Amino acid sequence: MAADTLLTAVRAHLKLDPDHAVILEPIKRGASGRTIVRLKAEGHPAFIGIHYTLDRKDNRYFLPVARFLRKNRINVPEVLYDNPGRNIALVEDLGEKDLLSLSGQPWDLREPYYRSVLEQLDRLFYTRPPKDLELSPAFGPETYAWEQDYFIENLVEKHLGLDGTGLRSNADLIRLRENLGSSHRNLVHRDFQSQNIILHDSKAWLIDFQGLRLGRQEYDLASLLYDPYLDHSEEEQEKLLALWEDIAEERPVPELLRDCATQRLMQALGAYANILHEQHIDWYAQHIPIGARLLLSQVENTPLEEPLRPVLESAMEE
Asked: How many whole angstroms separate alpha carbon 37 and alpha carbon 84?
């Protein structure tokens, strides 16, 4: 079992006697299919233990990507022990406080962490992967097409019970994915949202980066700005954009940010519906109406408003 394998790993890493007390605490975070636990050995700092399967190909990228990012001064946890033969690893424990935990707190308290995480995003922009680092396939038209179909299959059809045939052949959705997929030069985290940003030592640290790939930086920026978990107000969105401008010395092209936000929110809504219905994790249900409202705000007064409005209004009523 995964738990026994991880307990064996921490004993081997710390050279503990078989009867040395080790406490294992499950960590319920996200829905990647990995087993993630906190391991506390008496008299030693805690570790995060990860047991992964190869059912999801990106799980095997986690360890090499972690080492690559850390080498390039991106704030990620250190890999302390790994056993590829058993698909396990021990990584630095950064604690339980994430960006989501600051929801509702005063802006002055959150601002330094937002600045820190946006600095990480800016640094990622200038980081170049070596040719031998295997990553997930770059964002291209086919990747965006998959995300759109994921949204249609899981939210539109499975969750709402609507007919998604027209959306699959919609010319404006096709144009969106082709335009976004025409360029993918920079590294993208791919799931740059509040649960994947840990707050430690007064800085922001990134986790769940196994989906790192080449793409458009605006996709990550949109993921943070329009995160349904945090549901930033328009005023907060503007403050975040001002922070980004101060760090990156420019603002994103509004139309490009809007298109990336549209694409990202479709992917997120598809994920929420899939996790809700396939893994029966009810926590995600509350975020579907929020995500639908945020997506509607992005497509208003665009060609996508007409085909998506009925779907999104239905999702907002759930």
From this structure: 18
pLDDT single digits (tens) 90-128: 999 999 999 999 999 999 999 999 999 999 999 999 999
Q: Which residue has the tokens 């179909």?
A: 149
CATH number of the domain bearing residue 49: 3.30.200.20
Neighbours of 61 (CB within 10 A): 20
Q: How many angstroms separate the CA atoms of 15 and 300, rounded?
A: 60
**Domain limit, last residue, from 66, 92, 118:** 92
Helix (H, G, I), strand (E, B) or coil at 51: strand
Q: Looking at the structure, tell me whether residues 126 and 69 fall in a common domain.
A: no
Q: At 19, which amino acid appears?
A: D
Angle CA 256–260–266, to nearest 5? 150
Is the whole model's pTM more than 0.90, yes or no?
yes
Burial readout 117-143 (b: 16 or more C-beta within 10 A, e: otherwise):
bbbbbebbeeeebeeeeebbebbbeeb
- Do 70 and 104 share a domain, yes or no? no
- Does one domain contain both 242 and 107? yes
CA distances from 82 to 44, 65, 127, 287 (A): 18, 13, 25, 35
User: 104 and 61: one domain?
Assistant: no
The DSSP element (H or E) to which 206 belongs, if any, is strand 203-206
